[in-house]
Amino acid sequence: QVQLVESGGGLVQPGGSLTLSCAISGNIFSTRAMGWLRQAPGTEREFVASITWSAHLTDYADFAKGRFTISRDNVNNIVRLQMNSLKPEDTAVYYCASRDPVKLIYDYWGQGTQVTVSS
After folding, report:
1. Is the pLDDT of residue 118 over 80?
2. How many angstroms separate the CA atoms of 85 and 53, rounded?
3. What is the pLDDT averaged over residues 51-63?
4. Residue (of 101, 114, 119) closest to 35 by Cα position
5. Residue 74 pLDDT more than 90?
6. Residues 48, 96: contact at Cβ < 8 Å?
7. Are the C-beta atoms of 21 and 79 separated by less than 8 Å?
8. pLDDT value at position 86?
9. Phi, psi values for residue 26, rounded to 5°
10. Which pLDDT belongs to residue 29?
11. Of 53, 4, 49, 55, the residue nearest 26 (C-alpha)
């Protein structure tokens, strides 16, 4: 059974940093690209960042470039999202997801972790 469990969310002041972690269990991690997506209240879920299984390729949404860094640890089956210079508009529930290599859709999701940026 595949499970994705996020952690590391919380309340942070504008300009602060957080690191989100996603622990993956199940026999999918090492061959799939992984992504972080987020959803703020009243909005659709949006892409934040992704990383290929080899970690050679990463992709970021424009709002994340220069502030967020995605990484993965293929030994411990963990994906991280380092977020710096956080803004109030980064407030959302952040989800970790695994991408099907053929359909190119995210088909396994974690439960999400809340990030709130506020003074």
Report:
1. yes
2. 27
3. 90
4. 101
5. no
6. no
7. yes
8. 98
9. 110, 160
10. 62
11. 4
Q: State residue 25's pLDDT score.
A: 87
Q: If you compute the radius of gyration of the chain from its CA atoms, what whole number of angstroms results? A: 13
Whole-angstrom CA distances from 83 to 69, 87, 90, 102 are 7, 10, 10, 29
Mind giving me the DSSP string for the chain? --EEEEE--EEE-TT--EEEEEEEESTTGGGSEEEEEEE-TTS--EEEEEE-TTSS-EEE-TTTTTTEEEEEETTTTEEEEEE-S--GGG-EEEEEEEE-TTT-SEEEE---EEEEE--
Taking CA atoms, 80 is separated from 5, 71, 94, in Å, by 11, 5, 12
**What value, to the nearest 5°, has the Cα angle with vertex 65 and ends 64 and 68?**
55
pLDDT at 75: 87
The pLDDT of residue 85 is above 80: yes
CB-count exposure of residue 104 (10 Å: 0-12, 13-18, 19+) = exposed
